[in-house]
Amino acid sequence: MYQKLACVFIGALFILSLSFPVNAKVRGEAVVTTIKSEVLSETRELLIHLPNNYSRYKNTTYPVLYLLDGQRNFAHTVGTLDLLNQSGMAQEMIVIGITNTERTRDFTPTYDEGYNQWGISGGADNFLDFLEKELKPFVKANYRTNNYTIISGHSLSALFTLYALQERPELFQAYFAFSPSLWWHEEVIFPEAKAFFASDNELNKYLYINMGNEDGNMLSAYERYTELLNCSKRKGFTFDSELDTSESHNTTALAGMSLALQKQLNSLRPTGTIIQEGIPAVEQHYKDLSAKYAFEAKPEYKAVNHAGYAALNKQDFDSAIAIFKKNVTRFPNKSDAYDSLADGYEANGDLARALEMREKALAMSYEENVENGAYKTRLVNLRKKLIKAQTNRPLVPY
């Protein structure tokens, strides 16, 4: 009896003595730099944000999001992306915000004299040259990229985004177009757009396009364009369109960015059926993605993690633990990887190893700079479970 009481007392002290450090800091890293463009005959400012784990995963490469109207859209995009990253709902990526000098010039495909009061137009092809020949090589030379790129624009820059898709589809794998100004110059983009989407050539691209509570030629041109999308039979091409009348023209980029990032990731993820088939099927899926989109696709953390829990739900503990270990090996600085491995050990009755992984998950969460309330709770609960298991052991006679 005294032995049991001692175990309970010591265990209770051990739980109460848990202390958690305070180590708050801003996630990720922001950099402001410039690039001298011979194509544009000017110097352009770039707002660059690196993922939270960029400096910790030295061998990891990342997708790049090229963000037009960078000064306006950088802060909300980086914040939205980071929030989604923490829940595994978007890819970690490098964000390149391109600030404007002559917005109308850069984002319009044709010269329209009637628009001169807002700026000289018709420089879209030149701006495409800048992206292709100068900016993308600059980013590739200075940052760890995996060759998957996204371009995002709003209003006139969304017009440019769609123009880039049909004029030089090889430049990017994904396109975000928020409230595109498709009305430009009497809808000049449409003849080529119609032919582009009517083609039977393969088009391994993803597009997200939206519109808010806009009317007139903004809405009619959007409806005309989405009709082309719905009628397109191009193999490999996927898209999502959203008409959200609760948003205005000025907020569609803010509201749409979250959906675009989530849906873009979903366009790459393996289906539930593939995950249920196990790791070989998941790995084959990413090999197929690499060939389809011409980038270095590696199994995403969440996809492997889901495969582990699929095995765990089948009570195939050995397979589940092996899968969770695979994620720990690939993501040694990710707290959730250790927490999931702890789930595997705990389900298999190996509470000692589960405790080791729970402690590791909590310790790693401070370095990773992520919310860790759930890790603390699970650790405390596991310690209680261990104490209960110890007190229920038969007494050894002296």
Give a verbal description of the structure.
The protein is of the alpha/beta class and 398 residues long. The protein folds into two domains: 29-266, Rossmann fold; 271-391, Tetratricopeptide repeat domain (Serine Threonine Protein Phosphatase 5, Tetratricopeptide repeat, Alpha Horseshoe). 53% of the residues lie in helices and 14% in strands. It has 16 helices and eight strands. It has helices spanning 2-16, 70-86, 103-107, 124-142, 156-167, 184-187, 190-198, 216-231, 252-266, 272-276, 279-293, 301-313, 317-330, 335-347, 351-368, 373-391, and strands at 29-37, 42-50, 62-67, 94-98, 145-154, 174-178, 206-211, 238-243. An eight-stranded mixed β-sheet has the order 1-2-4-3-5-6-7-8, with helices on both faces. A hairpin with a 4-residue loop joins strand 1 and strand 2 (42-50). Helix 1 (2-16) packs antiparallel against helix 16 and helix 12 packs antiparallel against helix 13. The chain is elongated. The model is unreliable at 1-17 (pLDDT under 50).
Query: What is the ordering of alpha helices and beta strands?
Result: HEEEHEHHEHEHHEHEHHHHHHHH
In percent, how helical is the residue content? 40-55%
Number of strands: 8
Domain module count: 2
Number of discrete helical segments: 16
Oligomeric status: single chain
Q: Mind telling me the CATH superfamily name of the largest domain?
A: Alpha/Beta hydrolase fold, catalytic domain
Gyration radius, rounded: 26 Å
CATH class categorisation of the largest domain: Alpha Beta
The CATH level-2 architecture of the largest domain is identified as 3-Layer(aba) Sandwich
Q: Biggest sheet: strands, sense, closure?
A: 8 strands, mixed
Structural class: alpha/beta
Poorly predicted sequence stretches spanning 5 or more consecutive residues: 1-17
Question: Major sheet: order of its strands?
Answer: 1-2-4-3-5-6-7-8
Might you state the CATH topology name of the largest domain? Rossmann fold
Q: Which range does the strand content fall in? A: 5-15%
Taking all residues together, what is the mean pLDDT? 93
